[in-house]
Design goal:
By secondary structure, the protein is mainly beta. Helices cover about 10% and strands about 30% of the residues. It contains two helices and eight strands; from the N terminus they run ββββββαββα. The strands form three sheets. The protein has a four-stranded antiparallel beta sheet, with no helix packed on it. Strands 1-2 form a two-stranded parallel ribbon. A two-stranded antiparallel ribbon has the order 7-8. The chain is globular and about 35 Å long. The model has no long low-confidence stretch (mean pLDDT about 95).
Amino acid sequence: MVETVLGAACDATHVCGNGMICGTCGIATGQCTIACSAAGGSGCPTGSYCSRAFTGASFDAHFCVKQCNSDSDCHAVNTALSCNDAYQDDGTSGPQICNVSNSIGSTHPCN
């Protein structure tokens, strides 16, 4: 089955289409996403945000993920996601994005 919505759950049997990849690390683990180069809105589809994958040197990757106002915005696409602050390159946080729990994201380093 091909998933074509940003944030949709993905795995070996549910692959991402529409130019998206299935995230394998940090906040993007197990969701359809798009790789990007630096935190911010630039280079991401409307309604999404480029966030660092997590804090720490082993998470030096960035992904476009769906923006949200509440968990229900995320659950409309993927019930495994919740609405939390994005990770900025300078160590600050915000705006709100749909991501996996820290217990999952932190155990999947990016490099």
